[in-house]
Amino acid sequence: MFNSICTFPLPSDLLAQGIHPISPLLALGLASGHVQIVRLPALPPNSSQKSRDQSSSTNGHGTVDTAWRTRRHKGSCRTLAFNLDGSQLFSAGTDGLVKVATTETGEVIGKIAVPSEPNGHPDSPTLLHALDPQTLLLATDSSAIHIYDLRADSTIQGVKPQQTHRPHDDYVSSLTALSPSETSTSGFSRQWFSTGGSTVAVTDVRKGIVFQSEDLGEEVLSGTVIGDKMFAGGEKGALRMWEGGVKGLMGGVDKKFMMQKGESLDVMCKLWEEHTGEELIAVGLGDGAVKIVQVGTKRTNVVDSVKHDEVEGVVTLGLEPGGRMISGGGSIVKIWEKETSDDLDDEEADVDQIQDDSNDGADASIECRIKHHAVQPNLFTIQPNSSVKTSPNRSQHISKMKLSTLLIPLTTLTTLTCAGPAAYGVCQAGCSAVVVACYSGAGFTFGTVTAGAGIPAAIVACNSAYGTCQAACAAVLIAPTP
Questions:
Q1: Cα–Cα distance, 456 to 438 (Å, whole number)
Q2: Cβ neighbour number for residue 252 with a 10 Å cutoff
Q3: pTM (2 decimals)?
Q4: Is 426 helix (H, G, I), strand (E, B) or coil?
Q5: N or C: which end of the chain has fewer CB within 10 A?
Q6: Beta-strand (E) ranges in 23-87?
């Protein structure tokens, strides 16, 4: 059903993505603290699928252009969100700041401090969501959802939350706006469905927490909404569905489907609703797979499965305005298009074209060419006051980092010099690089976290990997030099 038309690498692990509501623009937040905006290959309007394929990155004629890139946060960037008309980009990092920048230039025009936990300890952001032109939602590790009224300060400088709710017992992992009610005069939603800890909930801007589920028996990592159906994905591979909107959720009757036993459902998004009544969601798994699920009242089944990466899990997933699916995880981003019958007929020709393009000296393993340039005037198509829903983001399930992945650089480095002091020095440098990257991915700075009962699980995993690495270095030091 889906073909990968573009794969492009990133200089650091991806933690967040934001999809522009109108233009083919993608915002990326990295573990290094960098934020960048890239322009995706444009799809010509009213063109056939075949001509669209010819303009895509698969055959080398399309490009992914970096519009701007900057070190926006001192720690990692954990979440991103565009406002409703796409003119501004919100980002939040482990430095405890939400920064507001213009989409076109990346210039910071405002800052908001992430509120501390009730005990005074710093709180890290997990999600940002623009509910309407005036309302910004900020979710955190401590289960808080802060509601900001941006009209309170036109400069968006130091604005305080108007309300704070805590609908879950742990960090908020997903947040999706519900459809506006039939009596709504603004046309914007006032409620949202969220997941966090082991529960799901619905919260209202005016009424507060409308519903909070009982303990579902597993950590709930992802969620989305299609019409009056709400979905939640768990750490053990179960996909839950409630029908009937908020009333159906309150009824407590959910349908449970085992997607892949023992594999976490880390992120999900709504794809589209066909005129035939077909409803599809995409689910990103911890093993790097993306499964396309057809959901219905009588039947729910997986209709397609693609692989984002063989090692890294899927941490971001969304649908851009042109209908292409964007997946992210590890240090790569992939763009997917829906497969048609023309794709199958032209498959052999497409392969020949890719092989021909690889002879021009470009890296054949990169399926799209990336150009870096300064922002040009009118690079972006901004349409003010457009009422377009944004794709939800999710917090990163960092505690499930694989130690085998962390130790890959060590294996590479220790083979450069077999033994002795020279090999020991190379090995130690490799260990240091690994642990610094591990801490950064978890949202911390190496050397600033002290041991104790409250040490995060992700940091325990980082320290364990570091100890294993140093033990290997010690063995290299005492081994005879060939």
A1: 13
A2: 10
A3: 0.71
A4: helix
A5: C
A6: 25-30, 34-39, 63-71, 77-82
